[in-house]
Amino acid sequence: MALQLMKLLIGASTTTNVVPTDTRFFHVTTAETAAGSTLTIDAADFFADDGSAVTELPELVANNSYYNVNVNGVLQMEGLSTYTAGATGIGSLAIEIPADGEPILAGSPVVLEVLNYAADSSTTVTT
């Protein structure tokens, strides 16, 4: 019999499920925020989709999350806002209004959308 290279025959398949968690928070400004200043909204100043009070803003999952900010229904540029997760007094959204921009008027709706993704993978190896 001739010499043969003996090797393992292995097969593998991986299934990955990605589950998004989309949470929206709403706020209506009570006063004008002038150009060149910062509008800071505490966690307790937001309300949820069902109208209930918010007491905490969720953590952002490292490398699997992001947030969007809309003012008056317009998506804002990423560099204008700072998101801090946490409970009342800690959790907040800060929006910096450029000095050469327009103010945010009283009664303006602000929508904060937080998206976190949870990945779950399973691998089956057959020999």
TrEMBL record:
Highest rank taxon of the organism: Bacteria
InterPro entries membership: DUF4183 (IPR025237)
Pfam families xrefs: DUF4183
Residue span(s) of domain DUF4183: 33-114
Name of the featured protein: DUF4183 domain-containing protein
Organism, as annotated: Halobacillus amylolyticus
Lineage: Bacteria, Bacillati, Bacillota, Bacilli, Bacillales
